[in-house]
Structures are given as C-alpha cells and as structure tokens.
# Entry
Amino acid sequence: MSARAARWLLWLALVLFLPLPYFMVEVGRVPVAQLMMFAAVTSPLLYTDWGFTVQVVAGLFLLQSVFYGLLLWLFAAAVTRLLPVARQTLLVLALVAGLALLALLPVYRAPLSHGPLPTNWFGLWM
# Structure
C-alpha cells in the first residue's frame, strides 16, 4: 500500500470511528462523520431561514466538522510518516481494525441522535 493510500485509509477510519467531543445544545462524543452529517443537514437551512439560532447551530456543526477533519488529516499524515515503510501497511490495517473494534463498544454519547445513554457505532445511525 502506498503512503498516500495508507494516509487516506487511516483518515477515513478516524473520521468514521474515533469518538471526539463536540459542543452543541448538549455535549457528546461522536465521530466526525456524524458531525459532518449534521452540518450537511443544517447548512441548507441557512438559505431558507437566516435566523440567529440556525446560524449558530449550522456554524458550530460546520466549524467542528472542518476543525476535526483537518486535525485528523494532520494526525493521519504524521502517523503514516512516522511508521516504518516496511510495516506501514500492516500497522495501518491494525489501527483501522482497532478503531472498528472500538466502535462496537458503547464509547459514543450522542444526545442529538441517540439519547442520553452511551451507545456503539450502530446506535448512532439507527
């Protein structure tokens, strides 16, 4: 696997599975993918309803999505740069598998999509 493919794969796994804190009406821990989904849902409302609340909600989701996306991209780039080339594929696949296994545990707290109790990755989307 090339270094570029390893970086993209690691970044995608981090975006999909890594629980990160966010702030909105309530606070929680969700993957960046869910923040991006919330930003995609609330941003079109800026066109139809230019109220203060919509601006704050859409702005916070957009800001947090972009910030975490860039931060995780820099992290993935640094990790793939530091890994030995001979073992890079194996180590990146192990990290991706570890993140996927972590996502099966109740490590997320998503009051906007799931409720107050901790949930796993599938509970975020159902």
Observations:
- The chain has one domain: 3-120.
- DSSP finds six helices and two strands in the chain.
- The longest strand covers residues 20-23.
